[in-house]
Amino acid sequence: MSKHSEDGMLPTHNHHDSPAIASPPLPDKSIRHEYPVFIGEFIGTFMFLFLAFAGTSIAIVSATVENADSDRFDLNPVQNVSKLIYISFAFGAALAVNVSIFADISGGMFNPAVTLSLLLIGAIRPLRAVHSMLAQLVAGICAAFVVSALLPGPLPTATKLEPSISITRGLFLEMFLTAQLVLTILILPGGPSKPLVIGLTLFVAELCGVYYTGGSLNPARSFGPAVVTGFQGYHWIYWVGPALGAALGALAFLGLRILEPEKARE
Question: Does residue 133 contact residue 23 with C-beta atoms inside 8 Å?
Answer without folding.
Answer: no
